[in-house]
Design brief:
Length: 684
């Protein structure tokens, strides 16, 4: 028997492995099974080139648990090892500057294991002792047994293994007893080893017989050695892709479609990506892509490995050019990974463009589900935008679809304003903005539907991308001002009438929570609505961005919603209100206006008299009179406003016009709605 010390440059290697790799301790099973698969594949390679002339036999990796002995064993029939090879590959864990390296990477299990081939040593995270029983495939080789208890000391002696291959036996320590439970091992094998290229056996297949579960003689193979992505796309049917998806994501709806990646140059990359149906929360859908290296599971946290917008996709990516055991920060800076990321973007764009060219109707039918991926991609990836601009679609309120160029051609005649800007009208709710959509369509305009998860941001983005254009929500102004032309109506109201109508209408607007109204006037036609409520495009966009967490815009979220109550000064009903005021308040208002006029004339004289005088040169009596005149002007104006407010409170037509405008914007609720219904009945 040979004894020795493992060749490391620090005696702390095992305590460090056990301590710092603890949070990732389950990966030990992946490492050991992967090693067994590698040994088996090497035997197949040697057999293929004639270096191994024997019978390979049944090549399987077996995992077994013995709860009495507290052991977990991984066995293979691969190339095995000689005593010299054990000394070289197991004992000489030698690397320079070990202390410095371990200190640097002590919080990152994958970095330690991946950089220095310490996969086998991950077994000491869960074991009090590890044994290797092995017999090399080489002619005349002797069986070897290696044993280590987690210190730097080991023993090598003659083994008793009769057949080629290796057993790695882990004596599971008390802290990790869960790794002796069949259910735990089955779950880990399913997670890490379900697509390994060599059959992995764990126990026997069980069947129900006479009301109970019994073991059969058939090996329970837990993996699919020839998974779908390793096969040629020409050999695969659509139903195969669907079945594979259902196997990966048992509780999910069927996907929209898939993209089969199959690249040989300049790097090797295979995989299948699926476009899932996304209903609401984007975040819940991330981390569904499984990353593999030669069919060995690496991770499902793929941010930085695939482009950000494609983290919403589901599926599998496999590449030997992706390092198996390194930290994510290393992956994200790896040049191969960056090339792979760019290539995946290209393949996704190519596939979408292919569908657009060959079956546009299919793309249109799926667009409402697809657009979140495409918009997200265009927002976050400039190269993807350049490609997607050819097939990205815009949908209008009639549910017709257009490419960017097609839509520009459609609207450029009618929707170019006097500054030669192309105005894209859009709606975020067909129901809430119905009357505005209809008014725009009656003018010959077309209205886009922008009601998706990301459209608040996408509208701003397209406004920057498209040349000489503006995006305007259809309810942001009266229809005649949405797209400003040279021609305009004349407002048939005097300044005094506008002032009076402002007081009349503003006094009767219901108090709505977090809402502020400003009365304004527009010269519309007699066929347009008498009163319309609009919302400023800029302020509303800022609030929308704020509600979605837009950086630097959070203060907009605390501001009240600001609306314009637009009075159509040319409407017959507005004229009737003006005539009613003149009929009932004419004499009273005339007296007030006369008094105000007289007082303002005197105020003008007093202000003219003090002009060019220093404060001390103005007689006290004049100062007091000016103050008194200003006070009386205010009193008269207050009296005028009181007369108008009193009139408005008894005028059902004013309240009815306001409420109709609120109702058309879905803003009339609660008590105000109840009053409107009662008033409507009274008016009928």
């Amino acid at each position: 028997m040979q004894k020795g010390t493992i060749g490391v440059s620090t005696e702390n290697i095992f305590p460090i492995i056990k301590k710092y790799l603890y949070s990732d301790h389950e990966i030990f099973l992946r490492e050991l099974v992967s090693n067994a698969v590698d040994a088996t594949q090497k035997l197949l390679t040697l057999s293929g080139v004639g270096e191994f002339k024997g019978d390979p036999g049944e090549l399987k990796v077996r995992v077994s648990v013995d709860q009495k002995k507290k052991t977990l064993t991984i066995s293979d029939s691969g190339i095995g090892m000689t005593a010299e090879e054990i000394d070289k590959y197991i004992n000489q864990v030698a690397f320079s500057g070990a202390n410095e390296f371990l200190e640097k990477y002590k919080k990152d299990a994958n970095a330690i294991i991946g950089h220095f081939g310490l996969g086998f040593y991950s077994s000491f995270m869960v074991s009090s002792k590890v044994e290797i029983n092995t017999l090399s495939y080489k002619e005349g080789a002797k069986a070897v047994k290696w044993s280590c208890d987690g210190s730097t000391e080991y023993t090598i002696e003659d083994g008793d293994r009769k057949e080629r291959g290796t057993d790695v036996i882990l004596y599971i320590d008390d802290e990790n007893k869960k790794f002796l439970e069949e259910g735990e091992i089955r779950q880990l094998l399913r997670k890490y080893c379900r697509f390994l290229p060599i059959p992995v056996v764990f126990g026997k297949v069980k069947e129900w017989k006479d009301g109970k579960e019994v073991e059969t003689d058939k090996d329970n193979v837990i993996n699919e050695t020839n998974p779908l992505w390793t096969r040629k796309p020409a050999e695969i049917k659509e139903e195969d892709y669907m079945e594979f998806y259902r196997d990966l994501y048992p509780m999910s709806e069927d996907p929209l479609f898939n993209i089969h990646l199959n690249v040989d140059y300049p790097f090797k990359l295979t995989g299948i990506l699926y476009f899932p149906r996304i209903k609401s929360n984007i975040e819940l859908q991330k981390n569904k892509i499984q990353l593999y290296c030669n069919q060995v599971y690496v991770t499902d946290s793929v941010e930085g490995i695939v482009p950000e917008f494609l983290t919403l996709l589901h599926g599998v990516i496999d590449s030997p050019d992706i390092p198996l055991n390194v930290s994510r920060s290393y992956l994200q800076s790896d040049s191969n990974v960056k090339k792979i990321s760019g290539h995946i973007t290209k393949k996704v764009a190519d596939r979408l463009e292919e569908i657009f060219k060959n079956d546009r109707k299919s793309l249109e039918d799926k667009w409402n589900d697809l657009r979140i991926f495409i918009e997200y991609g265009m927002l976050t990836d400039e190269k993807f935008y350049d490609r997607a601009a050819k097939f990205a679609l815009l949908r209008n309120t009639d549910d017709k679809y257009f490419t960017f160029d097609e839509y520009k051609e459609l609207i450029k005649t009618n929707q170019t304003d006097k500054h030669n800007n192309l105005v894209y009208l859009y709606s975020t709710s067909r129901e809430d903005q119905y009357s505005f959509i209809e008014a725009a369509k009656n003018k010959g305009y077309d209205v886009l539907m922008m009601d998706g998860h990301l459209d608040v941001h996408f509208v701003n983005f397209l406004e920057q991308k498209f040349k000489d254009c503006r995006f305007v929500r259809v309810d942001s102004d009266v229809v005649d001002k949405l797209i400003q032309k040279e021609e305009h109506q004349e407002l048939k109201l005097t300044d005094k009438q506008r002032e009076e109508l402002t007081t009349l209408f503003s006094s009767q607007i219901p108090q709505l929570s977090k809402s502020h109204f400003v009365v304004s006037f527009e010269a519309l036609t007699e066929n347009d609505s008498p009163v319309i409520i609009t919302q400023n495009e800029f302020m509303r966009r800022m609030k929308d961005m704020s509600s979605m967490g837009g950086g630097g815009m959070m203060f907009y979220g605390d501001m009240p919603d600001s609306y314009n109550l637009v009075v159509n000064g040319n409407h017959p009903l507005v004229k009737r209100i003006v005539e009613g005021v003149e009929g009932e308040l004419g004499e009273k208002l005339k007296s007030v206006y006369s008094r105000i006029s007289s007082l303002e004339s005197r105020k003008a004289e007093l202000e003219a008299a003090k002009k060019d005088k220093k404060e001390e040169e103005i007689p006290q009596a004049e100062k007091e009179e000016l103050e008194d005149v200003s006070k009386k002007i205010k009193e008269q104006k207050d009296k005028k406003d009181e007369l108008l407010k009193e009139y408005a409170s008894g005028n059902k037509l004013i309240s009815q016009l306001i409420d109709l405008a609120l109702l058309s914007n879905n803003m009339l609720k609660g008590e105000a709605l109840s009053r409107f219904v009662k008033r409507s009945i009274d008016l009928i």
